[in-house]
Task: structure prediction
Amino acid sequence: MGAKLRIEGSGDIERALVQLTRGQSKASGRRALKKVLQPVAQVAEGMAGGKFKVAVTSKLDKSQKRRARGDQGRNRVAMYVGPVQADGSHSPHAHLYEDGSAPRYQHSTGKFTGEMPANPFLRPAWDLYAPGMLEALGLEIRKDIEKTLERARRKALGAGK
Result:
């Protein structure tokens, strides 16, 4: 599941981002996104009933990277919320739990091997937090930019001694 948020018209945020280097502004965006998406991950993990740990990350496996090519770019920041295994690697069967599966039969014998009902946990968590996400992201990125600018100011004062 993917959702794209685009912040336009936030003049004060854009002016503040110009004062930062590209690396600083991307790091600031990453920190803000991670903080805003954390409640979604916590609710999703609770709704999964202990079956999955849900994390906010920028890391994807090879097939996920292929599907998310449009999210990557020189001036883009992308964070993902999704189920992971205990070691932090992706959870390849989570989509079966989220979406369910149709009845399955073995090809060779025709034996019925079951079906899985849908147990959504990510979509309801996202739907719960999505309406206020953009406003929360704006506030969080503004706070992070202020902290970053203050850090850079202190560093410049220290270097001048």
The chain has one domain: 20-100+114-159. Strands lie at 53-57, 80-84, 101-105, 112-116. The radius of gyration is 20 Å.
